Amino acid sequence: MDKQLPRLAPDRLPALAAHLSPLPWVEPRIGIVHLGLGNFHRAHQAMYTEDAMLAAGGDWGICGVSLRRPDTRDALAPQGGLYSVLIRDADGERVRVVRALRRMLVATQEQDAVLDALRDPHVRIVTLTVTEKGYCLDPRTGGLDIAHPLVARDLRNPDHPQSVPGYLVAGLRARRDHPYTVLSCDNLAHNGAALRRVVLDYARALDASLADWIERSVAFPSTMVDRIVPATTDADREAAAAALGCVDAWPVPAESFRQWVIEDRFPAGRPAWEHAGALLVEDVTPYETAKLRMLNGIHSTLAYLALLADIETVDRAVAQADLHALVHRMMSEDIAPTLTVPASFDRARYRDDLLARFANPTLKHRCMQIAMDGSQKLPPRLLGTAADRLRDGHAVDRLALGIAAWMRFLSGRSESGAALELNDPMADRLRALAAPGAEGLVDRLLSVAEIFPPELAADARFAAALRRACDALARDGALTTARRYAAL
Ligand code: CS2
C-alpha cells in the first residue's frame, strides 16, 4: 500500500463526494449503541441507519462497542469513525464512505464509557451483532446458560459485566423510567425473543422486580438481517486506497444485495429505516425461517463439503457442478417445502437469487469463515429443517449430508490431507469426540445435547441417514457423494 497516501479522515470528505450520498448530511448525536462492531454491522445496520438519517433526519449516530478486541477501534479512531464499504457485483465495484459511526469503544478497556453510553438518555436503541455464542444461551432450555463462565462471573459482579446479558441489564437498571429498545441482528431463530429470554433470566437471578419491569417495559423486536459480508483482506485495503486516494485501515467488502426485515416495536422511537429499504412488519418469522434455512443452511452445507474437497471460496463451491446440483435440489425439495411463507413469496425465485448471490466471483467469501462456530449454527440452519421433514415422514438424506460433512470436518483434515482449523466455542469437546475416528462418530456427536435436541438425536431415521452420509463421504469423497445425493 502506498505509504504516501493520507489517512481517511473527516477533513478528506470534501474530496470524496463521489463516495458519499449526495443528500445533505447533518452531523447526528448518538442515539444507538451497537454491541459487536464487526464487518457485518458496518456494512448492514450502520448503512441502513445512515441512509435513514440522510432521507429523514434524526439523531441516530452510532456508538459502536467491541466487546473484546481493540482492533476495529484502533483502525477507525484515527479516521474519526469513517470507513468505506466496497460494494461488489459481477459487473463492478462501488465504494461508499459511511459516516454513521460516531464513536468506538472497547468494553474490555473502557468499561465505564460503555456503561455511560448505555445509560445516556439520548440512546434509545441498543443493537447487537455478537454472533450466536454471544447470547450465552443454554440450547437445552432455550434460556440463559447460568453456568456460562461469563454469566456466573457477571452475576457476582453485576456492576462490572463482561457478558452480553450482563451489559444490557447493567444499562437497563439505570434507566427504569426510559428504557431502550434492544434489537438483535444475529442469525438466530426468533432472535428478539431468544435475547429477551436470556436477559430476563439474567435479571431475575439478580432482582425479581427488575426482571418484572423489563418484562413489562422493554421491547425486543426480532429481525431478519441479510447481506453477504466477507472478512477484510489486504487486497481490499489496496482496493479502497486506489478508489479513495487515501488509506482506510479497515474497509468492508460486501455484495450489493441487502435486506432487513424488522418487527416494528420501538416504544422509544427509531430511525426511519423504511426510507432505506427496510421492511417493517408485525411478525418477522416467515422471513427469518426462509433466510436461515435457505441461505444459511445452504451456506453451511456448501462450506463443509467444499472444505473437505479443498475448495476455498463459496463462488468456487457453487460453480462446481455436483455441489451446485446438490444444493439446488436441497433448496427445492428439502427446504423450501418446510417454509411457511405468504403466497406472494416465490420460493423458486428466492432459491435462484441466492444461488446467483453465492456465485458472485468478486466477493471471495471464504468457506472457513462460514465453517466457524458450527455447534451454534447447525441447529437454526439445518436441524430444524431435518426435524420438520422427519415429522412429515420425508427422507432427510441430503440434509444429513450437510451435517455429516460438518462431522467429518471436525477431524481437522481435508480429503487431500490439508489442515482444517476448528474455530468453535465447543472446539475442545468436539475435537475429542471426533478423534477416535469414523467408527461410532455419528453416535458420539449425536449425544451432544447442546447441539442435537433429544427427540432428533433419538430418531433412528436421522441417525441412519447420518451414518450413510458419513460412510459415503469417507468412501467416495465429498464431490462424488454430492453428485449421487443430488440424484437421490
Ligand atoms: C454466513 C453468514 O458466516 C456465515 O455463517 O452464513 O454470515 C451469511 O453470509 C449472512 O447471514 C448473509 O446474510
UniProtKB/TrEMBL annotation:
GO terms for molecular function: oxidoreductase activity, acting on the CH-OH group of donors, NAD or NADP as acceptor. It comes from Bordetella genomosp. 8. GO terms for biological process: mannitol metabolic process. Keywords: NAD, Oxidoreductase. Residues 283-473 form the Mannitol dehydrogenase C-terminal domain. It comes from the Bacteria. This is Mannitol dehydrogenase. InterPro entries: 6-PGluconate_DH-like_C_sf, 6PGD_dom2, Mannitol_DH, Mannitol_DH/Oxidoreductase, Mannitol_DH_C, Mannitol_DH_CS, Mannitol_DH_N, NAD(P)-bd_dom_sf. The keyword Cell membrane does not apply. Residues 31-274 form the Mannitol dehydrogenase N-terminal domain.
